[in-house]
Design goal:
heterodimer, A: 552 residues, alpha+beta, 18 helices, B: 348 residues, two-stranded antiparallel ribbon, 4 strands
Chain lengths: 552, 348
C-alpha cells in the first residue's frame, strides 16, 4: 500500500527522532504519524522496529461466537449513539480507516492518505479491488458521497457533522462547495476552509460506517448492501442479533489477510445488569462479554474466563452547569464555587471508591497522557479547607448542591464519592439518582451531574465536543472566548509538539475555571471463554469483529 | 346464561377501553414523549430536534385525536415533516402515500408499531405470548398436581403431624414473593457458592430449546408461590368435606380410609380449588413479569417491562388489551365452570 507514495510527511520524520530520544511515547508516535498518512508498518520502520505480527496466523477459519451485548435497533449510521449498534452493522458496513488500541490508524477501505503541512488538504487514496456485495465496484464516488452525507447537519442526530464541522457550510448546513473533490475514480481530495487535524480520526469512529448508493436506513436489514464479509441473519431488538458469513461475496479482506474468521456471530442481550451476564456466562450461553465493568472484572476472572485490559481516555465528568438556574440564581456561574468544588475532591479517592482503582488518576482537564499533545499541567491542589473558604467567600456556604447521577454501578459510586467528599469539606449536598431509562432525557441540563465520556484519539477532540461554546454536548455550559480561540488554533496544528504549548494553555483554563471534575481515566475490560483470539478490548469500543477467531 | 356471557363481554370491552385510555394518557405525557424521541432519535438530541421529531411523527397532535387514531375511529395522520418527508400513521415504509388506507386502528385489526422492537405489535406479541404460554404450561404442570396432593394430604386428617408440616411448607411458599425466591434459587443452585450448581440462572436459551437445566428455576419460582396458596385452599375444602355427614356414614359402614378419600371426598373437595386455580392465572401474570425479567426469558412479562422502560406506546397498549382479556376470560371460565361442577349454583 505504500507503492503509490514515496514521500513520508516531514513531521513524521521529526516525530521519529523524538520517539527515539524518548520525548514521545510509542503510542503517541503511532497515533500522530499514522494520522498523517504513514502506514503503521512504515511508522514502526521509522523507529527501527518491525510491526507486531497479527494474531491471524493463530486463528482457524470458521466457528461461532456468542457475545453478550445489548442489541439495539439499527438506524442511519451517521446518527449512531451506541457502539453496540455498530457491532452488528460492522459485519457488512465497513470503515475507511480503523483506529487501533496502540494509537495507530490503519487503512481499511482507503489504501492510504496524505495530509498537507497545515492540515487543510487531505488526499484519500481509495483501495482498489474492493467490491460491494451486489457486485459493483467501490470507488471514489462512494467515498465522496459518504463524506457529503456526514456533512449534512440538517439530519436530526447526525453526529458525524460535528466530526466534520470544518467542512460544513454554516448557512446551508451541508458540505461546503468544492470541499469534496473527486480527482479520479480512486482518489478523493478534501479541501478544507480551515485547518483540521482530526478528520482521519473522525473517519475511524463508529458512526462513520460506509453506506452504499441509495442507502435507506428503514430497509437496511432487508437490503444489506455493503462491502463487509457478513450479512445480517436476524435481529430482534433487546433479544438477539445474528450475522453470518456472506458466502457469495468475495470480501477484499481475505486477500489482504485481514481475517474474517468466524462463520457466525450471535449477539445476545441480557439487559444492563452485569449479574445477568455472569449468570449467562456460568450457564454457557455466551462466549464473550461486550465489556466487563467494576467488581465484575474479578468475578469473570474467577469463573475461569480470560481477561483483556486496555487503558483508555474513557472517563467520567462530574460537572456543574454554569448556565443552570436553581431557584432563580445561577450558582455555578461563579468561578470560585467551581474551584471550591474541584479543590474539595481528591481524584484518587474517586478512583478507589468509584471504580475500584481500575484506572489512572486524572487532573480534571479531560486531556490525558494517552493523547498525543497532552501537556504536563498541574491541576488545582486538593485542599478542602481552602475550598470551604472559597465557597464562603462566594456567599454560597448554605447553598444546597443537588448532584444527579444515573442509577448504575460505577457512575453512581463515583458520584457518591464526590458527594461524600464535598460533605466532608463542609458543603451542603443532596444526591439524586435517576434510572437509566430517564436519565438521558435531560443530561445536559442538570445543574450538577455526572456523565460518562468515551475515549477520543486526539487531545483536541473532546474539548471541541464538550467544552466549546454552544456545542450541543456542552453539558457544563462553559463559554469562554479565549478557550475557543486557543482550541481553533490547536486544531490547525498537525504538529503535536507545537500544539502541546497551546494544549497547555487550554488545560490550564480547564483547571483554573474549575469547568468539571474529571477524576480518573478508566481502564476497559472484556472477558472471554478460553479458546478465542483477536478479541482484545478496544480502546474506543470500535467493532473490529473481523479480527476475532477461534484459536487454531 | 347467554345474557350473562354477553354482559361479561361488554364489561370486558369497557374495561379494555378505560385501561387503554389511561395507559395512552400516561405514555403520552410530555416527558415520556421526550424520552421516546431521544431513545428513537439520538440519546443526546437537542430540544429543537426533539420538538420537530415529535411533530413529524404525529405525536404533537391532541391526545383524544391520537387515541381515536389508535382505536381506528379517526383517520390516521398524514404529516409532511419539516425535513420534507411525508409520514403517515397508516403508511408503511416505502409505500406510496396514495395507496395507504385512511383508517388503521385496533378496530381495523392494526395493533400498531413497536418503536423498540421495530416491528408490528401484532408480530411481536404472539411470539412473546407463545413463550409465556410455554412457561405457564410447565408452571401449571408442576403447580396444580403438587398443590392438590399437598392440600389433600394435609386436609384428610386435620390437625395431624402431616397436616401441620405440610401447612407450614405451603404458608412459607405463599409468603415468599417471586423476587425473593428467584434470587435465593439463583444463589443456591446457579452459582458455585454452595457447591450446588445444578441449574442455570439464565433462561434465555430456553426460548429456543427448553431443557430441565435452564427451565427448572423459573418454573419453580412461579409454581412455588401459587402452589402454597392453592394447597391451603384445597386443604380447607378437604377438611370441610371430611367432617361431612356422608363421610362419617361411610366410615361407620367400614369403608377403608383410602377409599373414602379417593372415592367419596375428593370430588367434592376439588370444586373450590378449581375456582382458585382459574383466579390464580391472572396472579401468575404478575409473577411472570418478575421471573421473566430476572431470568431474561423473552416472554410477555419481559416485553411489558421493556415496553414500559422505553415508553413503547403501542406495545404497552397491546399488552394492556391482552392483560384485560386474560383476566376477565379466566374469571368468566371459572364462573361457568363452577356451574358445571356444582349443580346447586345456577346463573340467571
Amino acid at each position: 500500500m505504500t507503492s503509490s507514495r514515496n514521500s513520508i510527511h516531514p513531521a513524521a520524520l521529526m516525530y521519529a527522532e523524538e520517539a527515539k530520544s524518548g520525548q514521545l511515547s510509542r503510542r503517541e508516535f503511532m497515533a500522530r504519524t499514522t494520522a498523517l498518512g504513514v502506514t503503521s508498518a512504515a511508522a514502526y520502520g521509522l523507529l527501527g522496529m518491525t510491526a507486531p505480527a497479527h494474531a491471524a496466523g493463530h486463528a482457524q477459519q470458521g466457528g461461532t461466537l456468542r457475545m453478550q451485548m445489548e442489541v439495539r435497533a439499527l438506524k442511519d449510521p451517521r446518527t449512531y449513539d451506541w457502539t453496540q449498534i455498530a457491532y452488528i452493522t460492522a459485519g457488512w458496513l465497513e470503515y475507511l480507516v480503523e483506529y487501533n488500541s496502540d494509537g495507530s490508524f490503519a487503512p481499511m477501505l482507503l489504501d492510504s492518505w496524505e495530509v498537507n503541512e497545515d492540515a487543510t488538504q487531505y488526499t484519500l487514496n481509495v483501495r482498489q479491488g474492493v467490491k460491494w456485495n451486489d457486485g459493483t465496484d467501490f470507488t471514489a464516488e462512494d467515498v465522496a458521497r459518504n463524506i457529503e452525507m456526514w456533512c449534512d447537519k440538517t439530519v436530526e442526530g447526525n453526529s458525524m457533522a460535528g466530526r466534520f464541522a470544518v467542512l460544513v457550510d454554516a448557512t446551508t448546513e451541508k458540505a461546503v462547495d468544492g470541499g469534496i473533490e473527486i480527482v479520479d475514480p480512486y482518489t478523493v481530495r478534501l479541501n478544507l476552509p480551515a485547518s483540521d487535524i482530526s478528520l482521519i480520526a473522525g473517519m475511524s469512529d463508529y458512526p462513520a460506517a460506509i453506506t452504499p448508493a441509495g442507502f435507506n436506513p428503514e430497509t437496511m436489514l432487508d437490503n444489506p448492501v455493503g462491502t463487509g464479509p457478513y450479512l445480517p441473519e436476524s435481529l430482534e431488538v433487546g433479544v438477539r442479533a445474528v450475522i453470518v458469513r456472506n458466502e457469495d461475496h468475495e470480501w477484499w479482506g481475505y486477500a489482504a489477510g485481514k481475517g474474517g474468521f468466524l462463520d457466525r456471530i450471535e449477539y445476545i442481550d441480557y439487559g444492563q445488569d452485569p449479574s445477568a451476564w455472569v449468570a449467562a456466562a456460568a450457564a454457557d450461553e455466551v462466549d464473550m462479554t461486550y465489556e466487563t465493568v467494576g467488581e465484575f472484572v474479578d468475578i469473570f476472572s474467577g469463573i475461569g474466563w480470560e481477561g483483556s485490559e486496555v487503558a483508555s481516555a474513557a472517563t467520567i465528568a462530574i460537572r456543574p452547569n454554569q448556565l443552570a438556574e436553581v431557584d432563580g440564581t445561577t450558582p455555578y456561574a461563579d468561578k470560585r464555587v467551581r474551584q471550591a468544588i474541584a479543590m474539595a475532591v481528591d481524584p484518587a479517592v474517586c478512583l478507589e471508591l468509584g471504580y475500584s482503582n481500575l484506572g489512572e488518576v486524572a487532573r480534571n482537564q479531560h486531556v490525558g497522557p494517552m493523547h498525543p499533545a497532552w501537556a504536563d499541567v498541574p491541576g488545582l491542589p486538593y485542599d478542602p479547607a481552602k475550598a470551604l473558604e472559597l465557597l464562603t467567600e462566594a456567599g454560597m456556604a448554605d447553598f444546597e448542591m443537588e448532584i444527579t447521577s444515573i442509577d448504575d454501578d460505577w457512575r453512581k459510586n463515583t458520584t457518591d464519592a464526590v458527594a461524600a467528599q464535598l460533605r466532608d469539606a463542609g458543603f451542603n449536598v443532596k444526591r439524586t439518582i435517576i434510572p437509566g431509562s430517564t436519565f438521558w432525557n435531560d443530561w445536559t441540563k442538570y445543574p450538577f451531574s455526572s456523565t460518562n465520556w468515551n475515549h477520543r484519539p486526539l487531545d483536541t477532540q473532546i474539548l471541541g465536543l464538550a467544552y466549546r461554546s454552544g456545542e450541543a454536548w456542552n453539558e457544563s455550559g462553559f463559554a469562554n472566548a479565549e478557550f475557543d480561540a486557543l482550541l481553533a488554533e490547536a486544531n490547525s496544528m498537525a504538529d503535536a509538539e507545537a500544539r502541546r504549548e497551546v494544549m497547555g494553555k487550554l488545560q490550564t483554563i480547564m483547571s483554573d475555571e474549575g469547568v468539571t471534575l474529571q477524576p480518573y481515566w478508566r481502564s476497559l475490560y472484556r472477558h472471554a471463554k478460553p479458546g478465542f483470539v483477536g478479541w482484545d478490548m478496544h480502546i474506543a469500543y470500535l467493532p473490529q469483529i473481523y479480527k476475532i477467531g477461534l484459536a487454531a | 346464561m347467554g345474557l350473562f356471557i354477553l354482559r361479561r363481554l361488554g364489561v370486558m370491552f369497557l374495561t379494555a377501553l378505560c385501561l387503554t385510555f389511561i395507559v395512552f394518557w400516561l405514555t403520552n405525557l410530555a416527558p415520556n414523549l421526550e424520552k421516546l424521541a431521544k431513545t428513537q432519535g439520538n440519546a443526546r438530541m437537542s430540544d429543537d430536534a426533539v420538538v420537530s421529531w415529535l411533530a413529524n411523527r404525529g405525536y404533537a397532535q391532541p391526545l383524544p385525536v391520537k387515541y381515536a387514531q389508535w382505536l381506528g375511529v379517526a383517520p390516521g395522520y398524514v404529516i409532511e415533516g419539516s425535513d420534507g418527508q411525508v409520514r403517515g400513521r397508516c403508511i408503511d415504509p416505502g409505500q406510496p402515500v396514495g395507496e395507504a388506507p385512511s383508517f388503521c386502528g385496533i378496530l381495523q385489526g392494526d395493533w400498531g408499531f413497536s418503536t423498540v422492537a421495530k416491528e408490528n405489535v401484532s408480530e411481536v406479541l404472539p411470539q412473546r405470548l407463545a413463550n409465556t404460554g410455554k412457561l405457564m404450561f410447565w408452571v401449571m404442570m408442576v403447580m396444580v398436581p403438587g398443590a392438590l396432593i399437598i392440600g389433600v394430604l394435609a386436609g384428610m386428617r386435620e390437625g395431624s403431624r402431616t397436616d401441620r408440616s405440610l401447612s407450614t411448607v405451603s404458608i412459607v411458599s405463599t409468603a415468599t414473593p417471586e423476587y425473593v425466591s428467584g434470587v435465593v434459587f439463583i444463589a443456591l443452585f446457579a452459582t458455585n457458592t454452595f457447591g450446588m450448581q445444578w441449574f442455570k440462572g439464565s433462561a434465555s436459551s430456553a426460548v429456543q430449546d427448553a431443557t430441565f437445566e435452564n427451565f427448572f428455576l423459573p418454573v419453580m419460582t412461579i409454581a412455588l408461590y401459587g402452589m402454597g396458596y392453592i394447597a391451603r385452599m384445597t386443604r380447607a375444602s378437604m377438611a370441610e368435606v371430611m367432617t361431612a355427614q356422608y363421610i362419617r356414614t361411610a366410615r361407620l359402614k367400614g369403608v377403608s380410609f383410602p377409599k373414602i378419600v379417593l372415592k367419596h371426598a375428593l370430588r367434592n373437595a376439588l370444586i373450590a380449588p378449581f375456582t382458585v386455580i382459574m383466579l390464580q392465572i391472572p396472579w401468575l401474570l404478575n409473577g411472570v413479569v418478575i421471573v421473566e425479567t430476572l431470568f431474561t426469558y423473552q416472554g410477555f412479562g419481559w416485553e411489558l417491562v421493556r415496553a414500559a422502560s422505553n415508553n413503547d406506546i403501542e406495545m404497552l397498549l397491546g399488552v394492556s388489551v391482552i392483560s384485560v382479556f386474560v383476566v376477565l376470560l379466566t374469571q368468566l371460565i371459572s364462573d361457568i365452570g363452577y356451574v358445571f361442577l356444582n349443580p346447586r349454583i345456577r346463573i340467571s
